[in-house]
Queue: 2 jobs
Job 1
Amino acid sequence: MIAAVTAADVQAAAGRLGLAGRPVGLHSSLSSFGRVSGGADAVVDGLLADGGTVLVPAQSPQFAAPPPAGHVPIPYNGEDDGMIPATSPASGYDPAGNAVDRSMGAISRAVLARPGRARGANALSSFAAVGPLAGALVGGQSGEDVFAPLRELAARDGVVLLAGVGLDAMTLLHAAEEAVGLTPVVRWARVAGVDGVVTTRHGGCSRGFERLAPALAQLERTGAVGASRWRAYPAAQALAAAADVFRRDPLAGVCDGPGCARCAARRAQH
Ligand SMILES: [Zn+2]
């Protein structure tokens, strides 16, 4: 029987990849680890142990709302992607709350549940963070500026860590798209304490992002913890390398899904 992964194992693996003391943008699958003693919290503890900060996606599409009355569809905005509901949700997004989509995974939920965690002010695509740089990383996020936490991660010598997930989970690649003028889609959401709906930017489709692997290969460092395969990328360099790819080919990240409204919109635009 394989021994359960511990927080110390995670700490040691992070050290081997040069992550100690640095902010880590983590995309993860807890189940990829196999058995973890202490569960999701042990993974977070291991990454925090040497003074690091953990930044995770905390999307909450349940707060999506229809556009305001009289809305005229925005060109190339992929509004037929199924994300826009017919009716407004009963409650609004509150960064102090922990409502999050299940697909974000157990580790994102564990970060949200931590005392002292910070969460950004984008109702649909917030990031949450815990650790010494938590507030600094997510403080600039807003409805219009969805990727501010990732630019901050890059500016602070941070690393993107994929733990048991692929490049299709790497939101930094959407920030690279935005950096070369491929703007995130516009959606609408309800926000606690605000009347009406709030314009909220959201990343496009990421299902084709594994195609950027060759462009990022020179930056990639790999490791393993238990059964979880890790890929780590220095955020600033990965952002620049991916931006170069999208500058040359705006369609470099589109997926092959025949029914993908967001990628269809991008193809129509370029
Ligand atoms: Zn797509």
Job 2
Amino acid sequence: MDFHVPTEMNHEVERFQSFLDIQVKPHLTSWYHEKAIPRTFFSAMGEGGWFGFTWDRDRIWARPSLRGSLLIEKLARLSPGVAVAFLAHNDLGITGLRLFPTDDLLAGFGEPAVMGRLLLCLGNTESEAGSDVANIAMKAEKVDGGWVLNGTKAYVTNGTVSDLAVVTAVTDPKASRNSRLSMFLVDLSSKGVSRTKLNKQVWVPSDLTRIQMTNVFVPESHLMGGRGRGLQQVLTIFTHSRVFISAMTLGTAEGAFDLAIGHSRKRKIFGVRLADHQFKSFQIADLYAKMEASRLLIHKACWAMDRDMPFRLEASLAKYMSVQTAKEVTEWAADLFGAASVIYEHPIHKFPLDAWASSLGEGTQDVQRLVIFREVMSGFDRRR
Ligand SMILES: Cc1cc2nc3c(=O)[nH]c(=O)nc-3n(C[C@H](O)[C@H](O)[C@H](O)COP(=O)(O)OP(=O)(O)OC[C@H]3O[C@@H](n4cnc5c(N)ncnc54)[C@H](O)[C@@H]3O)c2cc1C
């Protein structure tokens, strides 16, 4: 395995940092105040070429997943809440379109989505079905020329700002657990769609939305992949996006770590800089080691993904470790700032909350443990 990030990719990441310094940094205070990200952010990202890194044939990279993970890590260092809006569009929505396309869907929506002119989200979770994906209840009934959807998706990132949603629904209620669901691309301006923006305190300024569908007509051409394959397809999308949410979570840890290190070098307590108290210096070393271990797992998952090798275990290991690490790092970092850390406007305040949110998206830590356990058990005989 090669641990070297190609020079060309490092230049891309530097270019992305300059983009963030101009297009994102100056606006963050107002986005956090309004708890909203304007559409101009997504179009600027599209024009800059930052979406669709594994889809657009003109932009195929030698190691595209590694590039994607480095970009989202950078963005999350600055704002995990903006990074998750990027992730919902790019790694849930566009990834769905890329993995389970039809010619019509690609021709109609591929380019505008990659250019950020059209926004996507993914609605899977319902009030009675999160970790247990197969248990979802949204119904899709067959009618002439398409399907009619009824039900509610409880938590959808970007649900308020998006134009289209990748949605799972029950098409074959009498079929087995594995073949009840199908996947659709739903136009959110359709008659019968209503959206409620939820009041959350994590991943600010991204939006979280409840999307209700009442007799929403979806044309046959918007059925994604195969009928009855919705469960497998949505789990495949999550396996891919798990790698990028891991990178985003590492960025969350690093954002907090950077602030804390800066503070620890300035703040004197009992006449000594915080960083020079030996207990703090050991903690800094421990946490840095854990972040590096998370980084290696993420890069290994990217490495496997880009070589079309199995990466389900690697993705869950990366997610599990990066979340454990980010929870520890962000709590430690906030603690280093003392009482100042509880103030909403303080730059450290968001990080522990955003690390907690990372533990929920794309499967909780228990779900990662289940995947790791199953992969370990199934590989047991092979390894002996
Ligand atoms: C900020 C935010 C943004 C989100 N964005 C989206 C989105 O864009 N699209 C979308 O579809 N969803 C989204 N979600 C939903 C997210 O994917 C779910 O919250 C997550 O999958 C967990 O589902 P749940 O909330 O129903 O919890 P549950 O599945 O009810 O889990 C509750 C508890 O049970 C544990 N548990 C689950 N299974 C097992 C098991 N087998 N053994 C032991 N314990 C278990 C869990 O770890 C957890 O502790 C978002 C959530 C948040 C918080």
